[in-house]
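I'll show one example:
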Amino acid sequence: MEALKSSFLYTTTPLHTLSSKPSKTQKPSKPKPTTFHCSVTPDPWSLSDGNKPKSKNPKNRLSDDNARRIIKSKAQYLSALRRNQGSRAQTPKWIKRTPEQMVRYLEDDRNGHLYGKHVVAAIQKVRSLSGRPEGSYDMREVMGSFVTKLTFREMCTVLKEQKGWRQVRDFFDWMKLQLCYRPSVIVYTIVLRIYGQVGKIKLAEQTFLEMLEAGCEPDEVACGTMLCAYARWGRHKAMLSFYAAVQERGITLSVAVFNFMLSSLQKKSLHRNVVELWVQMVDSRVVANRFSFTVVISSFVKEGLAEEAFKTFREMKAMGFVPEEVTYSLLITLSSKMRNRDEALKLYGDMSSLKIVPSSFTCASLLALHYKSGDYSKALSLFSEMERNKISADEVIYGLLIRIYGKLGLYEDAIKTFEEIERLGLLSNEKTYIAMAQVHLNSGNFQKALNTMEKMRSKDIWFSRFALIVLLKCHVMKEDLASAEVTFQALSKTGLPDYGSCNDILNLYMRLGLTDKAKEFVIQLRKDQIEFDEELLKTVMKLYCKENMLEDADQLIEELAASGSFKDSKFVKTFSMAMHGDFRRPAEDAIEPMGHQSVMALRLVLSLYLADGNGVKMEENVKLLLKTASGVSVASQLISKFIREGKKPTLWLNMPHNNHVATCFNSLDHALNKNSFVMLWSCLKNQLYILNQESTIYSKCDISKAEDLCGLLTKLGFKLDDATNASMITFYAMQHKLKQAKEVFATVADSCVPGKPLCSSMIDAYTRCGKPEEAYLFYKEQTNRGHDLGAVAISMLVNFLTNCGKYRDAEKVIVDSFHESVELDTVAYNTFIKAMLEAGKLHFAASIYDRMLSMGVVPSIQTYSTMISVHGRGRNLEKAVEMFNMAKSMGVALDEKAYTNMICYYGKAGKSHEASILFSKMQEEGITPGQVSYNIMINIYAAAGLHHEAEELFHAMRRNGCSPDDSTYLALVRAYVEGLRYSEAEEAITSMQKVGISPSRAHFSILLTAFAKAGLCGEAERVFRELISSGLSPDLGCYRTMLRGYVDYGHVEQGISFFETISGSAEPDRFIMSAAVHLYQLGGMELRAEGVLNSMSRLGIPFLENLEVGSKARIS
């Protein structure tokens, strides 16, 4: 730009441009005085003597003054002539060629070509120089053969067709030496364009000055070419200075030049300059096109000029231009940031009507808008629309979708979306990991949230402050104190911790009972001047109230009230008034209910005074509280709160008599060895036994607070609501204090009709205290008085009576409830059906189900599952299958229990194939079989003798991560035995011992029976010895099995020896003693046989005469 530091940039002299229709009366304007700022370069608009260059012909101006106008006019004339040419149209004489011209045209071989042969040859000659180094040729020598052969116009053509800037420079220098050359703004414009294309800005500037010195006055094309060169190469400062000079001289540029400058400025994010240039463009009345509007609207948006952006957008549409997708996208994003949802949706609707497919960025903006406004259904429909239009989603969109699924509770969909992102290789942003972790936290699965954050750490993704906040929430939910404290320290290094994180840590300390740490933490918070919000303040006040810290609570409230940050907080105002006893409000205000914040404040203050134990002060504040509109309600809530907190068991590992258990736990932290584990398990069993024998340990402080407050309210003549009385009854029931529970109920029953919650709590009290007879008498007493206990209480009573074996009383309650037309729900009907199932009254259970349907009560999955058991136990398999299919047809989502129930009854009916098909179908439905389901199916295979299938299912069970138990191995042993695979059966018993499962007597009994029946008495004896060596005691069944083998196969001596071995330990049994008599008789031991017979007679045991020794041996 140094080369153009002349009066072209600094003079105020306007350029004289000729209009298309010059007026004869127009007088030239007087030139304004020129100010020079450079002493080196002369004024390019004048000669060295300061005068304007003059033409040789004084009547005409410079030769190029009207050249462009004439060319354009001629082109327009020819175009119109071709369009309107008819039969009488005559071609102008100056268009016709003479015969000489035609001969020359044919000789030049120009027919069908753009240029003549000599022009093409000149172009190729000059272009061939591009491969030669600079200075290795002389353009005069190269073009010597073309001297006088090229006209000025043809030289311009050769110049225009060049590609290299050096050839342009050298050819232009040669061109100026030719006789036909005349200075022209056209030829200079060609040179400027080529220099501008290759970035030779300095040469372009020198050429422009040369053009001025040659007396060629630049027009809008030349100036536009120069401006485009500046714009193309990012010389924005020079461009704007040059444009200012052009503007001062009244040259109106074309819209293409303006677009070039606007685009160049925008690429460098010079949006303010874009806006200013746009204003000047509008002032110059240059008609903008679609590209101009697109660029300017983008800059308006980037500058935050929303009003101007939308105004320009409306102008664009009014001129008939269809906005591009990027324009809509920018405006939709702007509307989303401004929370102008209606405008954004209107723009999207406009796009859809024009059939403009939105980009992924536009969809992301709309999804974010729907997410923030809580319109999740529209967000999901938009995502479906994206899939229909095949718009590829990026990580941002997937991240928004995960958040939306989380808000809707569709956690499985959120997990699938996250896995899809990972599979597509799009997972790279911290926000996506955090979104997934928050979804896991909202679903209560803190471990999966932690796994997600750890996966993020493994990818070397930097943890931001927000990521640390989420990680802290994970550790707090897990109650991992050490990790939570480390994360909080890391968060503190990024700046002062936010009040939400402080609240999380404080709540964790309080949940773990670490009150000392909680106090120290609060002191540190106040020392660091952490800003409190209401939630953090409430948590701190709860700590103060729990620890009876009256002075600290009063001081904190006063500080916050004085600071002004909580001037509008009802919580702080109410707390302050309650602390100072200022509850005397006008009577008309007393009828207004208090808000949630005020109620919480009153509860906390009352808790403080209750903990302080000052009866006078407490009574005074309770009286003040009861004067408020919500006073009784607040007091009742507080009593319920004390009861709930009092129910929480004390952490028994911290108790003095459990120090040994704690020591074992600490040893496990360092090294998990067998001795420590055995010691720990022994201690645990002892302490669990103690806890089961004793009542649950309750916080006496909280319970005494509840009792004191309840007594005070009764003393002042106020009645508690049913919910509070029910809580008191439930608390006494948990302590097995049935007498106190009855007293509370009697207090209410004497004054009014007890509500359903109270009756339910009394039934619960009788249940917890194990008094079925009293529970039934209570039910009869209340129903005789005409009280409706409700479906809940009746369900509890029927369940309690059934569990205690009082089936007849349970049936009476059911019949009475039907007779009294008690309104029952699904749970009650389920309880009734199950009770009659356990009582064996299957027909009555079926009739209860029929009544349930007739009353319009919708069955649940538990209903169908129980009814399958009813029909299955009644050996009505068809009805059971019908019930199962009915549940499926009703759209009820069947669970594992329903499937397993049906599979079990298929097995009992001997239909192992149908059971196997249903087991496979259960897995196809996405239900993972549990241990019970596997055990039942293996048992079915065992009963059918399908040991191969049983073995395969056993291995599949282990592959699927389901650990077999002793029942699994028992079924597997039975399957092997049924298939006569005795060695595999023994291996199964050995393998279960290897994995730490001790075999029971039943495992050995199956093998024992199989060997005895097969006559393999030696093997049976070996198994019998293994049973004893395993620490198990044989029962009568084992003894009978062994003796049966000896008797059936005629092993007299072994039988006698076995009998004499067990005679001292086995209980008297008819078969054992009868078998001994037969064996003694065959062995010739009549006296011993007589002795056994006498013993049987003495014990009243009849003798089995039809036993035949060796019956199976003779058959074999």
